Amino acid sequence: MRRRGYARLPDEGELPSAYIHDVPSRIWHWVNALCIVVLAVTGYLIGTPLPSAAGDTSSLYVMGWIRFAHLATGQVFAVAFLARATWAWAGGGYAGQLFLPAIWRRSWSDGFVEQCRLAVFGSPRPPRYLGLNPAAGSAIFVLFVVPAVIVILTGFGMLAEVKGHGSWTHLAFGWMTTLFGNTLDLHLVHRLCLWALLCFVAMHVVMMVDEDVTGRQSVVSTMLSGWRSFRP
């Protein structure tokens, strides 16, 4: 992994556009966003089922399709997350900032304190960074990466209960029920972490749009094109 540090840019003057997000990172970002939406909707419907539908029960498979969509999307989410974690180490540029904030660097501590001060008191000229700023990188790790890992593990743990002994899911993830003590707590932690992801998504969207509008660098458009532009 390269460029774990935080590249603070000069506060004054115009800067040329910089290529920040490579193609694999951008593809993963939007696939990941779609997966979270599908998982949230189908997960809610699984936890709060729809009213019984009238008609021949042999021709109705509504909850079955909802469950299938949830399980299939969950596996896509897990594979994409694993691929993104691999790319964080194999890829260049700033791909690794998402998974491991460089808290051991002076650039992180100084930048984190400054970003917290900026959030509380505001500033007419917020700092500009290549890649993530220290506060954003740390927030993504705590509010997205950690809950995502727990959601994936608990999700496969619940699937292992359904598949039963002898299945590959039970051999690989059957220990999750033992870890939590019972299936109820396993389900509870899974749902709480999904709510944590939804809260992160809401904050992420609001803050990125606000930064794109009121800040001095592009954010939303950067995840579309890969290029970040800077305003003086």
From TrEMBL:
<keyword id="KW-0812">Transmembrane</keyword>
<keyword id="KW-0472">Membrane</keyword>
<dbReference type="InterPro" id="IPR051542">
    <property type="entry name" value="Hydrogenase_cytochrome"/>
</dbReference>
<dbReference type="GO" id="GO:0005886">
    <property type="term" value="C:plasma membrane"/>
</dbReference>
<dbReference type="GO" id="GO:0022904">
    <property type="term" value="P:respiratory electron transport chain"/>
</dbReference>
<keyword id="KW-0408">Iron</keyword>
<feature type="transmembrane region" description="Helical">
    <location>
        <begin position="135"/>
        <end position="160"/>
    </location>
</feature>
<feature type="transmembrane region" description="Helical">
    <location>
        <begin position="188"/>
        <end position="209"/>
    </location>
</feature>
<feature type="transmembrane region" description="Helical">
    <location>
        <begin position="27"/>
        <end position="47"/>
    </location>
</feature>
<feature type="domain" description="Cytochrome b561 bacterial/Ni-hydrogenase">
    <location>
        <begin position="21"/>
        <end position="226"/>
    </location>
</feature>
<dbReference type="GO" id="GO:0009055">
    <property type="term" value="F:electron transfer activity"/>
</dbReference>
<dbReference type="Pfam" id="PF01292">
    <property type="entry name" value="Ni_hydr_CYTB"/>
</dbReference>
<keyword id="KW-0813">Transport</keyword>
<keyword id="KW-1133">Transmembrane helix</keyword>
<keyword id="KW-0349">Heme</keyword>
<dbReference type="InterPro" id="IPR016174">
    <property type="entry name" value="Di-haem_cyt_TM"/>
</dbReference>
<dbReference type="InterPro" id="IPR011577">
    <property type="entry name" value="Cyt_b561_bac/Ni-Hgenase"/>
</dbReference>
<protein>
    <submittedName>
        <fullName>Ni/Fe-hydrogenase, b-type cytochrome subunit</fullName>
    </submittedName>
</protein>
<comment type="similarity">
    <text>Belongs to the HupC/HyaC/HydC family.</text>
</comment>
<dbReference type="GO" id="GO:0005506">
    <property type="term" value="F:iron ion binding"/>
</dbReference>
<keyword id="KW-1003">Cell membrane</keyword>
<dbReference type="InterPro" id="IPR000516">
    <property type="entry name" value="Ni-dep_Hydgase_cyt-B"/>
</dbReference>
<dbReference type="GO" id="GO:0020037">
    <property type="term" value="F:heme binding"/>
</dbReference>
<keyword id="KW-0479">Metal-binding</keyword>
<feature type="transmembrane region" description="Helical">
    <location>
        <begin position="59"/>
        <end position="83"/>
    </location>
</feature>
<keyword id="KW-0249">Electron transport</keyword>
